[in-house]
């Protein structure tokens, strides 16, 4: 369905986008004046996406953080177990599902910019079908988490406790499978605030139910993870009800369609490329946790790195919010045929994200001696966390740039290229260097983290160079080709859709 303004699809964003391209194309006006006017317009376009997206990602991350806090106050073993289960096993599924879901992000973002509204709902459903099918083998992996962790060299005691935690996260796998396509579907339309309200309400429910289940009912690690899974399903259900009932989605969601089951092999190829790109990225710091479990004092290493990685993950949610905004803005502009606006959006969103993360890095350095007490009362862990804070600060600063550039890659559809870059920088440089420094040079957690920071820095520089040299006019043409390829011009084999 091409063209036409619609109240539910924010026609003002399309108008602002056109004005932005016009300002940037005006060669007669002074560069400084054009830059200021364009920046003001870009902020108006970014804010409705980035601000609520940051809130959504932060609140959803707090679900996991609060669960680890519940477990941490049960004891150091429980903290290590929840860390290993959450950051060592659960993030495996998270990375895979999020990666496959980014195919929807590319297609929905560009289709919305091109006014092909009817295809957004079809893309969302196709992705959900594929992700649900992927969830089945992941559930089997979860079931064998204890022997897997022991095989990887983790302590049997910690592995057994982590396995109990992981069993309760099996329902969360399928919540992810439904959530990420829904999330990308809404983000492509700049509809993010409702998800923020839903996440806020769910967090309150999660804290109350989690406290009752873990402490009052005494269900421990299993109860904590089951509550986390329940909270994710509440988010999924609430978002779907909003889509089905809201007038804002009336043209992009027309009900269930048999078209969701057509073209699945081709869609799987794009989803696989997306998954490889983001999985390699997400699993990278998972390996840091797993390597830490092989050090001489695994419980202390895991506890201190858990605190640092959890804090890094919290700040990372800010960058991921800008990642989403960059992907949507770049995808929308390319779909609309606005190369200058796409390039300018990259500059603005990267600069804003970088400044915010630098400020957060400074804050953590100032309070380095106290931040661990949020998670555990141990003084030994507090000293270890304080010692790692400079590495945490460096990670935060890199994370102010790297996720945004990854979002640009998703908006452009560069997932396959970035996958190769990630393999080289992360797995041929970062991890071997971290292993060498951590074990051969006996630098422990610091050495592992230093090596992996080197891989991240290299990847960031390469992405920056690729983005800097991009021919945005060519990217507009590529977006047109992609949408023509993926738009269904045939009627579905089985009649009609099921409308609400």
What do you see in this structure?
It is a single chain. Helices cover 81% and strands 1% of the residues. A two-stranded antiparallel ribbon has the order 1-2. The relative contact order is 0.13. Helix 2 packs parallel to helix 8, helix 10 packs antiparallel against helix 16 and helix 11 runs parallel beside helix 13. The N terminus and C terminus are likely disordered. It has one domain. The protein is mainly α.
Provide the helix percentage: over 70%
> Helix/strand/pairing class, anyone?
mainly alpha
What's the end-to-end separation, in Å? Answer: 19 Å
Number of helices: 17
**Mean pLDDT over all positions:** 81
- Describe the strand arrangement of the main beta sheet, using strand numbers: 1-2
Order of helices and strands: HHHHHHHHHEHHHHHHHHE
What is the molecular shape?
globular
Low-confidence stretches: 1-11, 488-500
